[in-house]
């Protein structure tokens, strides 16, 4: 079966050119970057090059501001815990975040609450945006960090990051952003935004899994994350995952080169899917913001349709999308993001997220429209007309 992959916010396929760049570091160039001999030097310069590539992509002033990590989750943990641990009992114990963070930030903050930190989870409006006035009012003298997701992975809403950083700067509070869903989709420039810390993950932009980076603006005060050897300037010890880091560097080059072309293509595909579904299916609702939105994410609630059922039926037809609900141990918990938008649980459970990527075609979108239309009609015909 030819599969249609519409789950790019979960992960993306590895770009062949990226694999090619990685191969030498999985074979001949096996050195340890800390060794001073030939093998070590080869690897060290490859890691340095990747660091420059990442710094260049996000407009960092110096490659020294980039720390390689094991991915988005680790970068989020490093930023939030790093600042928290450094500031604890000196500057304060108050952290501000949002109620629609990725679990990597949300659960880190919940963990910190058990260790004496106080966390404010800002609510969002029905489109997923925080209120800047509310942010202003929430900042206190003991606020040590503001961590706000840039592009939400479930609904695609983009926060006004530059304004957020402006407000934070007025109060001298550092800002971290989880920009995992922004890279390769919208331009990201740490100087334009004014963030102090920013998380990236390679596998969300056609790079390998298990590698990411954390941007740490010079003079940002945070504790080192992994203790051991002197790798990553003592900030994150452990022998570098060289092949993955090199792959990330290559993926960054391609993301930068193709940003405009890709996003133009993806806007068209998303519009095609949105319009096709709207035309053919009654009583469907799109979640998220109409303008401040990642163009590749389409979160749709289908009235009277179980999202899980729709996803399973689509999977049988070779179409891979994702649910707006987190499925935990057999019970379907409504997504915390959709709940925060004020969407009732029964509507949240009828939600499917389609996330488009660079490998999708118009034909795939047309087939998806056809199959979704068919399946929704079938499910609705055997269910009563209320929300499931
Ligand atoms: C995927 C994702 C992460 C986690 O990144 P990993 O590299 O998979 O750990 C964090 N935040 C957002 C917004 C994501 O989409």
Question: How would you characterize the overall build of this protein?
Answer:
The structure is a single chain. This protein is of the alpha/beta class and 388 residues long. It folds into two domains: 4-11 and 259-383, Aspartate Aminotransferase, domain 1, CATH 3.90.1150; 16-254, Type I PLP-dependent aspartate aminotransferase-like (Major domain) (Aspartate Aminotransferase, domain 2), CATH 3.40.640. 41% of the residues lie in helices and 15% in strands. The chain has twelve helices and 15 strands. The protein has helices at residues 16-26, 38-57, 72-87, 103-113, 132-138, 161-170, 190-193, 242-280, 307-316, 336-340, 345-348, 362-382; strands spanning 4-5, 66-69, 94-98, 118-122, 143-147, 175-178, 197-201, 212-216, 284-287, 297-302, 319-320, 322-323, 326-328, 331-333, 351-355. The strands form four sheets. The protein has a seven-stranded mixed sheet with strand order 2-8-7-6-5-3-4, with helices on both faces. β13 and β14 (331-333) form a beta hairpin. It is globular and about 65 Å long. It starts with a strand and ends in a 6-residue tail after the last helix. The structure holds pyridoxal-5'-phosphate (PLP). Pyridoxal-5'-phosphate binds next to α3. Pyridoxal-5'-phosphate binds at residues 9, 71-73, 76, 102, 104, 149, 153, 178, 180-181, 201, 203-204, 212.
């Amino acid at each position: 079966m030819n599969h249609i992959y519409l789950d790019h916010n979960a992960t993306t396929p590895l770009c062949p050119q990226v694999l090619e760049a990685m191969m030498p570091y999985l074979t001949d160039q096996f050195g340890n970057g800390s060794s001073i001999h030939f093998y070590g030097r080869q690897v060290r310069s490859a890691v340095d090059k990747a660091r420059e590539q990442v710094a260049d992509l996000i407009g960092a002033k110096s490659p020294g501001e980039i720390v390689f990590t094991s991915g988005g989750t680790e970068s989020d943990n490093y930023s939030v815990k790093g600042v928290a641990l450094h500031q604890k009992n000196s500057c304060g114990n108050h952290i501000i975040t949002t109620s629609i963070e990725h679990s990597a930030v949300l659960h880190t903050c919940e963990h910190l609450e058990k260790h004496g930190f106080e966390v404010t989870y800002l609510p969002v409006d029905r489109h997923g945006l925080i209120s800047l006035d509310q942010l202003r009012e929430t900042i206190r003298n003991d606020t040590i960090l503001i961590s706000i997701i840039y592009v939400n992975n479930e609904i695609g809403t983009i926060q006004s990051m530059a304004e957020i950083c402006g407000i934070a700067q007025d109060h001298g509070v550092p800002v971290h952003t989880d920009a995992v869903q922004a890279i390769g989709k919208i331009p990201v420039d740490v100087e334009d935004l004014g963030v102090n810390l920013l998380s990236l993950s390679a596998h969300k932009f056609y790079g390998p899994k298990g590698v990411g980076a954390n941007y740490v603006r010079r003079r940002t005060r945070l504790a080192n994350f992994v203790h051991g050897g002197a790798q990553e300037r003592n900030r994150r010890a452990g022998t570098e995952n060289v092949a993955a880091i090199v792959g990330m560097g290559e993926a960054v080059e391609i993301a930068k080169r193709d940003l405009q072309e890709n996003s133009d293509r993806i806007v068209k595909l998303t519009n095609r899917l949105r319009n096709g579904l709207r035309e053919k299916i009654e009583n469907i609702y799109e979640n998220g913001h109409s303008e401040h939105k990642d163009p590749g994410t389409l979160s749709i609630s289908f009235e009277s349709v179980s999202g899980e059922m729709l996803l399973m039926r689509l999977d049988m037809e070779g179409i891979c999308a994702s649910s707006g609900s987190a499925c935990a141990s057999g019970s379907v918990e409504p997504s915390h993001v959709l709940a925060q938008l004020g969407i009732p649980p029964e509507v949240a459970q009828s939600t499917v997220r389609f996330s488009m990527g660079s490998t999708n075609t118009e034909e795939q979108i047309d087939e998806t429209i056809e199959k979704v239309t068919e399946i929704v009609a079938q499910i609705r015909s055997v269910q009563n007309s209320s929300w499931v």
